[in-house]
UniProtKB/TrEMBL annotation:
InterPro entries linked: NikA-like
Species annotation: Chryseobacterium muglaense
The protein's name: Plasmid mobilization relaxosome protein MobC
Pfam families: NikA-like
Top-level taxon: Bacteria
Amino acid sequence: MKNKGGRPVVEDPKKRRDKHIGFYVTSDEYKKIIKNIPDNLSLSEGFRTLLLGNNKQIYVPINFEKYISEVNKIGSNINQIAKKINTTKEINNNDLSNIKSEIAILNKMFEDILTKLNSRIDS
């Protein structure tokens, strides 16, 4: 009979996962467990990796395109403010506030990138 979709049929009975395991954890335990499961793995795969000691190196891709796009937008905003300041030779509180806001966003993004890179090095 032809498979009509859904899960793929596992031909080898030794590879078929037919046993279910369930247990409860506290919120703190859950956070610690989830922190150790890479974003690109499902919970099931993550638990198998953690519990069975899968020796494969887990690669967690970092979406640099997202960060590059944001940095480009922020750079454009800062350039527009700089052009206005250079043209009018004056700066107002709103311009200063915008610049500070954009710089804070840049700092947060770079901290996120460093955190992700450091977590790769530590694991």
